[in-house]
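Lab notebook page, bench 4
Experiment: in silico fold of construct C2
Operator: M.H.
Input chain length: 199 residues
Purpose: comparison with the prior construct
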Amino acid sequence: MSGVRVKEHEQLRVMDSWNFNAIQCNKVKSVPPCPVTVPLSAYKALVVEEDKAVHLVIRFTQLLCNSTHPMTVYEKCHIERGHDITTITIRQKLLQPIYRVQLSKSLNRIWYTFNNVDACAFVLRRRNPVLRLLFANFQKFSNINHSCPFTDYLIVDRFAISDIQVARLPILAGEYALLTAWQLNGVDAAYTNVFVIYS
């Protein structure tokens, strides 16, 4: 955690806790007097200590890209590791226009799989909630901002996952894998596998 972040909902939760303790304290008329106000410095101290105790980070550990058909080739497929962040970059060259894209995916440890998703239709309507969540996170790092046809390149540039956004989800610490297989124009053409650790 960099700096001190005091979120409104955390302040309210801390205040609720203090108020509850104050009510219970008043009932038993304890000495010394019960707390009734919480200074901002106390908010910050409590939030910081809580955040240190529960804040987890997510990091990419491995990235595998493989082309299984000559219509496409991966020019880049790597992880960049910084001091406190990891990013992935994928540059996939398309050697012919792509009019149909079918996607099969699995998320291990979450036990979620889906097969033959029409990726072209999804970009237009975004009805699959899991895909919608994944797409919303990486869209701003990618040139995949329209439906089919796709030409020239598909690019994901220095994509990083937000620890704060992941912390809002009911995900346990551990290792995860996102395994994808791609059909382009009806032909099995590529797969991309992403491995992360959340700890």
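Observations: Confidence is low (pLDDT under 50) at residues 1-54. Residues 8-54 form one domain.
Next step: discuss at group meeting.
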